[in-house]
Specification:
about 350 residues; alpha+beta; Nucleotidyltransferase, domain 5; Actin, Chain A, domain 4; five-stranded mixed beta sheet; 11 helices
Length: about 350
Amino acid sequence: MPQISDIGIDLGTSQVLVYARGRGIVLREPAVVAADRTNGKVLAVGAEAYKLVGRTPGNVQAIRPFRQGTISDFEMAKELIHYAVRRVSGRHFLTRPRAIVSLPTGVSETEKRAVISVLFDAGMRKTQLLEKPLAAAIGIGIHFAEPYGSMMIDMGAGASDIAVLSSSDVVVGTCTQIGGDYFDDAIIRYLRKKHNLLIGDRTAEEVKMTLGSAVPPPNELTMDVTGRNLLSGLPRTQSITNLEVYEALKDVISDFIETIQQVLEHTPPQLASDIFEDGIILTGGASQLQGLSDAIYRELRIATGVADDPATAVVVGCGRALEDTPEMRSYLHENSRYRYL
């Protein structure tokens, strides 16, 4: 394996991605750790652990260390970080490299310092943090060093960052728990209520990806979904339509758009004018929900687009921030400057 130098890391709710300087994205795996409930022993990490989600015996639990924008299990988060570093370094570095890390926005300052410490133990000489909206903007080539307003929305599985960028910083923004997992939960609740059918997280995600839409679908599509009948307790297969999935998601989408509107209401008028002129850009895996950009435009009358490769925008931004230029150095810090509404 070639020697890895400086790296950029995106520690997300659903995936961990690593960008190696000069090589691009070298790791992309599910952010899941499987552990024994009785003794806490780690059994699998990444793709192997993801195979166990929803299929583990009673003594094994599949854990996503990052949930709803925070670290839900720090010990498992340490295992995930060490696993990612070992995978890209061959277990050791010839020199101690630098790491630039983007964490879920809701992670506390104490947790951030702890992550920096873990990365130092894993072989990093220095770890700096890059806020997700800034990383996403850098990753897709948005220039925001000038006093001109740009709106970035990075939608992850556990949380979404909505931010107005200008003069190399976040002017105003917020973090909402509405993301990919929130969409999945809405589908689970809908099928439970309407069909007395309980499905798992992985099945809900498959339904979302196959039938999910943020706008009323023009044509009817159906899909057979297998879950547990809440009345009989037995497995049952139910045919559902994309219109039903839209019904499950529409209130969540409405809440999400309302949050965007609240950020715009707190945006300085001149910057808001810039956004109305240039539009909104969506990044993150959850932004790929069909019709989401159309739904935002219908409500806010602001042109909205999705980045070409939205799921990798943040880690590519971390990788590009490794360039040792004055502009890139201004984006990096050890403690968050993020301003919440």
